[in-house]
Amino acid sequence: GEVCTMINKKYSEFLPSMQSAEDLVAQVEGLASNIDLLKAGIENEVQRDLNVAVAEFTELKQQLERDTLVLSVLKKLQEFDTAIKEYNTALLEKKYVTAAQQLEKARSSLRNLESRKGFELKILKALGTELTVQTQNMLYHLGEEWQNLIVWQLPPSKEGSSLEALVLSELHLHTVPAQQEGPAAPPIAAVLQALAVLGELHSKLKVFGQLLLKYVLKPLVSYPSLQPLTEEQPEVFILRFKSEEPALNQPSPMEVFDKIKLIFEVLHKYLLNVPVEQPGEDRKDGRVTLAELLGELIWEELSDCLIQNCLVNSIPTNSSKLEQYIEVIRSTEEFEKALKKMQFLKGDTTELLKYARNVNSHFANKKCQDVIVAARNLMTSEIHNTVKITPDSNVALPKLPEPGTGDHPKVLQAPKLLQHGTGTLGTESRLSQFTFSLPTCRISSSVQQLMELAYHTLLEATASTDQCCVQLFYSVRNIFQLFYDVVPTYHKEKLQKLPQLAAIHHNNCMYIAHHLLTLGHQFRYRMTSVLCHEAATFVDLVPAFRRLGMECFLAQMRVQKGEILERLSSSRNFSNMDDEENFCAANKAIRQVLHQLKRLGKVWQDVLPVNVYCKAMGTLLNTALTEIVTRIAALEDISAEDADRLYSLCKVMVEEGPQVFTPLLEEDQNKKYQEEVPVYVQKWMTFKELMIILQANLQEIVDQWADGKGPLAAEFSAAEVKSLIRALFQNTERRAAALAKIK
């Protein structure tokens, strides 16, 4: 009764004629009989005299349409009213599903009314407001019920999901069915179904799913020490956690799967095994379990988390452990099967299982990634930490098994075929022991480690599956490609500024090139058939590495030559040496050049191979001597005092020049190389001849020339000798006679 008066009060403001629902019905009936009369009227009039009555007919027809419309509107209003009444009754009795369905009925009546064009009733706005209020009211009740059913006890938000905070969180499910089974539907199903009817179930589940991921599922994957504890009491089920010291840092996927499965099993039992009808969903019978709905919301995120934090870490890093991985694949299959049974998952193989089954490829990827990361770290480490290598040094490596034997060796013993001295090519083509010899020099220890990394990776490749073997082989090639690209750029400034580093880099490149010659060859019997013998090679990279080392070192040589010429340019052209200031400038220039060469001789000592060292030092000393000869030979006038002073400057060069050759640490062993200087310095004899000219009289010069067959003729052209004679001697008949003999 109370409800009726409330509604009447509402409607009376708009339709005073509607005193009550009964009135309404009477009016509807009255209208219906009116319509019948009208119909009869139209038909009679029309039959009697159509032509006369066209105008009247049109009017009557419009009247009919209006009345029909009013009638259907009133019917819909009546439906709305009834639905709201029944909703109120059901809500008081906590019949949530009925209440929700009645609200939806009222909503469809209202939609129908709103859809009529040209018939805007003021009342519709009020009805809409009423419906909204009632819907919110119902959702509030359902929200309360939901919160009573599912209670989260979470730590203060600032603690987030740290291990300490997680141990304090609990989930209580008040969904344990009461002992006496009455006819009343269990409240949980009703609450869920009502939420589904009102279209609110999805958002409630979404929030629940996010909390479940954040405080239960993801922590169980991330923290090996976290263990779930479950407890059932008469009215409530409780899930909480304890933390124990884990046996391993990395939990095995099996343990993680078991924990997650336990959570899903209890959720299934106490909460999720409830079928609900999803209105408007294109499912076969419209029924779907809560587990399925929740699975759709959280599976993807959970699966990603399991792959990233659990499966990725379980991928083995060496091929021997690959066999044991079958376990992991099996347990992943079991895990998925269990979740499908509980309807969390539908459909076929998921990403999780695909990932586990694809272990060979992940193994190869992980291995290759580890190799490249290690290689890159080595390449960006300091160049100047060096080790000395000699023709008989070895790469420290396990002994390779004989081709054809299946065993993979455990012995760590430097194998013969990795000696720098010789690449074993089999007796049929035994080469001289020094064919592949690497001269004694210093290389960066990081490059030696890089080479060991390459050998170890190839060794691993030979023991792997075809797919993996190919990937590992190419990752070794990538190491070298990377070196070629990274090192010159990464260390660019140092390689330009520091002659010692340029020398070490030169050696590094030559060392790598040397190993690349035989690298593929040593493993050719073991490489999979996929890499046919021809393909598994590194020889094609050899010229590039030799060029890389040479270019860097030659660039450094150009810098040093430039500095020598720069210093000699401050010598005042060696002219007018009788002027004290000029003599000092020339003397200083020569001292600086010798000092520069001496310093280089020291920084390259024990670093460059001896033959490279001698060539390099010889070339630079040669640059200095050539420049001095050119400048002196170009002088137009050399007085006797000038000549003496020039001679003394040249003598310093000839005496101290060879002393800059110190390729070895042991001083006494350097004598040999200092005596061989003429071999390495192309213009050495020219320089010596120039010194003779500076001290000689006219006759001695003519004798040295010996009709173009003497030592002087071997070093200077006739024009140069004549020019020197004119500069050194005054214009006399004797000079003219001497000049005549030089031709």
Automatic annotation (TrEMBL):
Q: What is the membrane topology noted in the UniProt record heading this document?
A: Peripheral membrane protein
Domain Centromere/kinetochore protein zw10 N-terminal per the UniProt entry, residue ranges? 2-84
Q: What is its main location?
A: nucleus
Top-level lineage group:
Eukaryota
Please list the residue ranges annotated as the ZW10 C-terminal helical domain. 588-742
Q: Which Gene3D superfamilies match?
A: 1.10.357.150
According to the entry, every stretch annotated as the Centromere/kinetochore protein zw10 C-terminal domain falls at: 436-566
- Do you know which Pfam families this protein is assigned to? ZW10_C, ZW10_C2, Zw10_middle, Zw10_N
Q: Which residues form the Centromere/kinetochore protein zw10 middle domain?
A: 142-379
Q: Where in the cell is it found?
A: Chromosome, Centromere, Kinetochore; Cytoplasm, Cytoskeleton, Spindle; Endoplasmic reticulum membrane
List keywords of the entry alphabetically.
Answer: Acetylation, Cell cycle, Cell division, Centromere, Chromosome, Coiled coil, Cytoplasm, Cytoskeleton, Endoplasmic reticulum, ER-Golgi transport, Kinetochore, Membrane, Mitosis, Phosphoprotein, Protein transport, Transport
Q: Which GO terms describe its cellular component?
A: endoplasmic reticulum membrane; nucleus; RZZ complex; spindle
Subunit structure, briefly? Interacts with NBAS and KNTC1/ROD; the interactions are mutually exclusive and indicative for its association in two different vesicle tethering complexes. Component of the RZZ complex composed of KNTC1/ROD, ZW10 and ZWILCH. Component of the NRZ complex composed of NBAS, ZW10 and RINT1/TIP20L; NRZ associates with SNAREs STX18, USE1L, BNIP1/SEC20L and SEC22B (the assembly has been described as syntaxin 18 complex). Interacts directly with RINT1/TIP20L bound to BNIP1/SEC20L. Interacts with C19orf25 and ZWINT. Interacts with ZFYVE1.
The family line of this record is:
Belongs to the ZW10 family.
Q: What is this protein called?
A: Centromere/kinetochore protein zw10 homolog
Question: What is the species of this protein?
Answer: Climacteris rufus
